[in-house]
Amino acid sequence: MLRIENLHATVDGKEILKGLSLAINAGEVHAIMGPNGAGKSTLGYTLGGRPGYAVTGGTVTFDGQDLLELAPHERAAAGLFLGFQYPVEIPGISNLQFVREALNSQRRARGQAPLSGGEFLKLARAEAAALGMDAEMLKRPVNVGFSGGEKKRNEMVQMGIIGPKLAILDETDSGLDIDALKAVGEGINRIMRAPDKAVLLITHYQRLLDYVRPDFVHVLEAGRITRTGGPELALQLEREGYAPVAA
Ligand code: ADP
Ligand code: MG
Ligand code: MG
After folding, report:
1. Fewer Cβ in 10 A, N or C end of the chain?
2. Which range marks the domain in which residue 161 is found?
3. Could you tell me the pTM of the whole model?
4. Which residues form the ABC transporter domain (predicted)?
């Protein structure tokens, strides 16, 4: 589904990704862990096409297409969803307006008919209920005045409505209490655990991986993947930190 080869990327002229390679097949969950400043968020932003993140080498294919050729909205329409470490607040636009516009513009780009107001509302309410979010919050401006946990839950509601093929979730677990962590973990499993979908979870902590069991765990250090293993690697990192294992 996603193949990243020897990716180099700069932010404000500074090289942050330095030859990163990673392949994700449909049906798989991959976790990326790594020290602060390693380039984890930069990887997410670069794949999403955020302005200011310049690819200076390497290739990325998504479902056989050259991802780097696509504009950010085309990447979203192709099925890429980015969950942010710090979800943005958008005063003046309700959650419902925001996600309906996102969903329907993606549907139009794929040649699908947009959902009617009634169809969309039904879908949005079902997703909010599944995530344990009060349906009244759908009417509030996007994330404005939401707690950290509510923002992350809201992000999962958005993901459930959009129904992406590949979700890249950047520290979706940071700042969550136990109940919210469980709800978010179950949401990821329910929405994204399917043979035709895949997840890239960026996380500092092993605890989210108790709920969303990864097939592969990677360590990102100084702009490259330096180690890959199974779920046991996350447990080992939690015990021992990121210091390289002595030879
Ligand atoms: P991580 O998510 O792994 O903690 P980031 O991808 O956020 O790391 O950041 C990687 C490196 O890029 C850090 O050293 C950070 O200071 C640097 N960086 C991020 N954004 C900018 C920017 N706008 N200008 C310059 N350096 C940046
Ligand atoms: Mg960080
Ligand atoms: Mg980060």
Report:
1. C
2. 2-246
3. 0.94
4. 2-247
